[in-house]
Amino acid sequence: MYQKAVAVPNRLGVHARPAALIVKKAAVFGSEITISNGIEEVNGKSIMGVMTLAAGQGTELLISASGEDEERAVEELCSLVSSGFGED
Amino acid sequence: MSRSFEGTPASPGIAVGPAFLLDVEELRVARREISGETEAGKELARLDDALSATCEELRSLSDGMGELVEGRQILDVHMMLLDDPVMLADVRRRITENRDNAEHALSQVLYDVIQRFRAMEDPLIRERASDVRDVGRRVLAKLLGSEREALGRVSRPVVLVSRELDPSVAAGLRRDQVLGFATDEGGSTSHTAILARSLGIPAVVALREAAEAVQPGMTVIVDGIHGRVILDPQQDELEYYTRLRDKYSEMEAAIARNASDPAVTADGRPVELAGNIEFSQEADQVRKYGGRGIGLFRTEFLRLLSPDADDEDMQCMAYSHALREMKPYPVVIRTLDLGGDKFPGVPELRERNPFLGWRAIRVCLDKPDILRRQISAILRASVEGTAWLLIPMVTELDQVLRTRDMLEDTKLALARDGIPFDPGIPLGIMVETPAAAIAIDIFLPHVDFVSIGTNDLTQYTLAVDRGSPYVAHLFDPLHPAVLRQIDHVVRKCHAAGRWVGVCGQIAGEPLAVPLLLGLGVDELSVSISLIPDIKKMIGVVDTAEAAGLAGEALAADSALKVRQLARSYVQGRFPTILLNGFQGTEE
């Protein structure tokens, strides 16, 4: 398993569109992916799950993956989050 | 825990059974147990079909949006919601392990998701609940087809609970599927309520928030007598209402047993007793309650119910049903009795007094296409039974002659097209204006029968608007001025060999029965539920005595005196008739 923490930088946080981007990215990988906001852990390929994390600006997300492409999955998802989803 | 709601009683009777929520909007759909592996497999396949059909729909919607990026993004999220692996796994587990039907499984999972979203602090996320509901509705619509089809799949009889019930859905209800219904909206005169009465399904409407509180499958009591609905009743409530329900069905059975008895006076003179209806389906109830014919088929409902009201085929179907059900007894079909502004293409009328304005036959003759279509529909249906044609609010002979011309023209047109009809269909007028009553001899040579509409006749004779609280007490159809007109009309009709019926509210008033029989009317046509009581009343009236009573009433100096005379006659013979029919059987 590979994991890494990343903070949500954009003002609006992980609302619908960023959640969709995360889930779309996650779906590319074969690994099982989970995302946790420190309270709840959800399936990274479930848009309903990612949305219910309600990760606002500054929230620290812990992204974990296990499988063949676990490292690449976590790195790419982390850079997506830290890019602020092209917002702000 | 038991919860009770007060509403408006819309159709009498008691129903006890599991709730079925006709409420796809809120994503709550009743559960139906799946019987085995193969059934579960079928449900999974139905789910997949519905999901891919919905995805397809969303994709083409999205494609159609072109440059509308915001819109496409929303639909994009919707498609992802549908494809959510966690959600889908939950739904599939419910189908395979809980043996839920696909729509219930999906609705429960989505309902939980929505509740979770709604609990969020972040308003941006909270609003996503509406996206989940939106997409869920799409899939459910695919799974359920129309709500009517959904009802068709219930495995045992249910109590329908919904915010409102479209007449079109209500029209598809079957007595063996629906024990009763309860709606948050509507009134006792809504068409849905009328339909419930005609189907004999207990109903309560205007409950305001019962649909909010109910859960699918919860036991529900519908008390259509008092207008009460109880959700999740306690044991004692359940027992009480089950007993009440059984008593009510006993009473109904007694009515059914007596339905075939003819209406005959104490001295053996048969009286024609018919029912008034508004929906063709009500004809079944008229028969069940022992009515021999329909004295007044109000046709306005067709127009109010459906945008295709002027569709001749639809009208023809409605009339045909009533005619078949009543055969061989007559069905008196009254042409549209509406204000001018209820007609298509007519702007709102600003008449100072619509009751003296452009309405009923006055409009119909000015809009001949509508009347011609209605006459044509009645003629085409006339081969199904015994149809009589009645025109309302007549004041001028010319109105009768023009309708007669149109009737003959329509017959010719049908004959040309080889469509069968009853060539001898009688044409009658409603006597509901003093003009028609006093000058009835002007009309008689040109009409085949006469029907007295006492509500309007009273209004126009006494110049009283019942809707005005200041003068409503002056409205009384037993006023000597009204009775003398009825007397005059009956005499003139009989002298000319014409049949005359009474179809206003007065005919359904027990006190008025001996008076009307004494005046010699040939037929009484009353609200369906009153038929059994009026039949009993007829049974205690002696024709000769009634004629004497009528003579006294005609000479009385007020409606009050007339009522006193009638009451002393009735009370001596049949005191309980004055009691409300059902109260006596309730504990």
Characterise this structure.
The complex is a heterodimer of chains A (88) and B (587). Chain A has three helices and four strands, in the order E-H-E-E-H-E-H. By secondary structure, chain A is an alpha+beta fold. Chain A has a single domain (2-86), classed as 2-Layer Sandwich (Histidine-containing Protein, Chain: A). In chain A, helix 1 (16-27) runs antiparallel to helix 3 (70-82). The longest helix of chain A has 13 residues, at 70-82. The radius of gyration of chain A is 11 Å and the shape is globular. Chain B has 587 residues and is of the alpha/beta class. Chain B folds into three domains: 3-26 and 154-253, Glucose Oxidase, domain 1; 37-145, Enzyme I, Chain A, domain 2; 259-585, Phosphoenolpyruvate-binding domains (TIM Barrel), CATH 3.20.20.60. Helix content of chain B is 49%, strand content 13%. Chain B contains 25 helices and 16 strands. Mean pLDDT of chain B is 86; it is low at 577-587. Classes of the chains: A alpha+beta (88), B alpha/beta (587). Chain A binds chain B through residues 12-13, 15-17, 19-20, 23-24, 42-43, 45-49, 51-52, 54, 56, and chain B through 73-74, 76-77, 80-81, 84-87, 113, 116-117, 120-122, 124-125, 128, 131-132.
